[in-house]
Amino acid sequence: MKKRLSPIVSFPFIVCLGLLILNDFYLKTTYHNILTGKLSDLCGLFVFPVFWSVLLPKYRSAIFTTTAVFFVYWKTSHSQPFIDFFSEVFFPIERTVDLTDLLALPILAAAWFSMDSDQQKPVLLVWQKRINPYLIGAIAIFAFYSTSKPRYTQRLDQPHYILLTSDKPIDRSDYDHLQYFRFDSLLVVKVDEISLSERPVKYDDYSKNAAVKNLDYTVSQMLGNGVRLVDPKTITYLNINTAEGVDSVRFRGGLLDGKLIRKKDGKITIAGLYKNGIEDSVWVFHNGNGKFSNAVTFVNGERTKVQLFENSNVIKTDHVNTRKDTVRYKLIQIIILVLLLIGTVFLIIRNYHQASEKLQMKKLSKWLLCIFMPIVVWCIHFAMILLLGNYHYDIFIVLGIAILMYLIACPLFFIVIFGIQLRKQIDLLWYTLLLALAFSIWIEINIYLELSI
Q: What one-character-per-residue DSSP string does 358-408 give?
């Protein structure tokens, strides 16, 4: 094993790497406290610069300096414009501004001296020799991905509350996306968004309804001991004072069930109906003058129509696809793609029989086509998924599909160009389109099946 790889098989590196993965996947969600909140910062600041310094030893000083500077930038409010831009263009990322996290910076000095100590050792210990550094490196990359992977959340557009009982005070620093309102032993929790364990196939009301189905149980588990569910048969009426106004609500058990009316300065601003925690019927929204601004129609928790008003007159009506509509249109898209694929196959076969001679190309040109045409296939496929309106691909999925497509398309082009051989120049376009269509159909069928569940 190369001497410069010794730091990633050292005891401190392996311990910090193991704690980083354990904390991100288990401790942080199970024991949400100050220790688990800081542990990932401490371990990450040790593992990250050591790993990259082993790969790029000439830039070790720059790596450690950049890590420190970026960590400070990331933990302050100055990084918010970057986070907003990245979340809008690529995938949602989040962080909590907490300057106490900067107390973890001295761990960089420990990482630096640990590298010096490991590289100055004349020989490795027996257990270190038995560990494959490339395996540890792969695990480290996985840990970096797991830490930086997108956090999927489902927004709740209408005011949404759940009702619990609680005998203990709630630490308001826990789960900053929640708001708490105390009514004696009753605890009302306002929820603006829900954290999801995986990316939904589409961010729509259908996904939202599934997420809020057992929201009272989910939040009670998050808040821990001392918080209990309300009897499902209990009816509770409450007036909740918020910054947006006073919300008059009705609960059945822990979920909203009945009218929700919001008043501000004595005027109604929102009037809607909940059934078993999901929106139903027509929700009406008023502007500051008490006049209609817009109305949203819900059927089984899914919006079907949005109307805009001006001076109490409808000026615009938009019809919204439900999940059932989306599934039907996706099936139509798949049928169209299959027909295009059949037409492309017909053109290839026709050219094959019409041209008796094979297209002559230099060997170098053939090799270049086999290497670069899979990239063109992916570009055409990507244009197709944008045209078809696929839903919220994040950068990791796009990258994974691109790599998979290249690994499959590259050998297929070798078969086509060196084995079957082209008859006409336009055949190169038809084969490229054929592969792009085949990949797109495969992706669309998977989306269709996910939407249909």
A: PPP--HHHHHHHHHHHHHHHHHHHHHHHHHTT-----HHHHHHHHHHHHHH
Confidence of residue 333 (pLDDT cuts 50, 70, 90): very high
**What is the C-alpha to C-alpha distance for residues 438 and 342, in angstroms, rounded to an integer?**
10
Q: Which residues contact 375 (CB under 8 A, 6 or more apart)?
A: 406
Torsion over CA: 232, 234, 240, 245 (sign): positive
Global pTM?
A: 0.68
Confidence check: pLDDT of 186 > 80 = yes
pLDDT of residue 1: 46
What is residue 317's three-state secondary structure? strand
- The SS3 call for residue 77 is helix
Element (H, E) at 278: strand 278-286
Main-chain dihedrals φ then ψ at residue 286, nearest 5 degrees: -115, 150
Does residue 336 sit in helix, strand or coil?
helix
Instruction: DSSP letter for 321, please.
Output: -
The secondary element (H helix, E strand) that includes residue 208 is helix 205-212
What the block records as the tokens of 432 is 């490229």
Contact by Cβ (8 Å): 209, 302:
yes
User: Given a cut of 70, is residue 194 above it in pLDDT?
Assistant: yes
pLDDT value of position 272: 94
Does the pLDDT of residue 29 top 70, yes or no?
no
Strands (E), 171-277: 178-183, 186-191, 193-196, 227-229, 235-242, 245-252, 255-256, 258-264, 267-275
Residue 262, pLDDT score: 94
Q: Which of 431, 201, 444, 409 is nearest to 337 (CA)?
A: 444
What average pLDDT does this structure show over 149-159?
A: 77
In angstroms, what is the C-alpha Rg of the chain? Answer: 29
Listed residue (446, 440, 339, 341) closest to 385, CA to CA: 440
